[in-house]
């Protein structure tokens, strides 16, 4: 059987558009992955990492309805299979192909589900997926802040983007399960918190702390709070659309992936404006809030910090995040994985990809010359130290992972058949449940 704790890193495939759709921000291109992908996979192995958040660039792979260019995916995924690295496949990371337009397009969910199924059929040995990365952040940055893609700034546009993105994720999960019945979905989503800085700010902070859950509430079929229900209805979601989310229950196939950075906590002023607060509660407290809400296994799917002038800032952040992961586990939350994101330095995230400056952000385990950073050495040692310790403490937290080289074995096929039976029984039970109303 595969490893019981998912130590991971990622190769970022963000590709939103800016400047009214005229410029594509392709992080794989900016970070040199198209030229150096084999070297990048060498680095993954060098670290002792067996799980990689990774996916093909959707804007150059998905050419039209039923039309795909799999050339890059065929080369890279065949190499991952050869190396027995299990990809957590990131199919949509902040952008869509030009021919789809943006996240206001109501055709996007169905089209994306077709793409997801086509990928699963081409790579049937892949088990782990993040169909749409950071659904809430994608909708917020594209349609509420006006930074990417549609570059709109309204609640109506935000709700429209959000419902299309979450529907796309749900339909993609269904489509993939038709091909791979034991697929596991890791919802990489930003875990946020909003702190009121004075009594007059309590109300707007409470609203933001309710809104942060919308993507996962809809994705997991959890009824939203009454204020959020009114917010959704007032801004373009129909009752039928809402109830369709409530009836799509795939939680038994899911791990709640949550991302945490220093920028995930915010100070809220009386007029509703926010600014960064830095780390106040930290990963431990905020993850407990999300777990208490959804009661799912948890994976820490993203974190990083700039390597600063002392050279040990990122190393210290890694230690702090890992200490938080252990604290969460010791408190009884089933944490099954941890990720430093990403493998290499990133480019232009200092402006949240809003500007095409080519500025290198020293956030990676390796720099863009593929030289290891101090945090890379520290992560490599952390994995070596803990990889064989954690399974002895997690017999009941085993994730039914099938590693790529094991995908054709008899027991793996039996597991997939068991998954089909479980899914069918769950569907029958849900069909016999009286729907609840909001």
From TrEMBL:
Residues 414-423 have a biased composition (Basic and acidic residues). SUPFAM superfamilies: (Trans)glycosidases. It holds the Pfam family Glyco_hydro_1. Residues 412-438 are annotated as: Disordered. InterPro entries: GH, Glyco_hydro_1, Glycosyl_Hydrolase_39. Residues 424-438 have a biased composition (Polar residues). Gene3D superfamilies: Glycosidases. It comes from the Bacteria. This is Family 1 glycosylhydrolase. The lineage of its organism: Bacteria, Pseudomonadati, Bacteroidota, Cytophagia, Cytophagales.
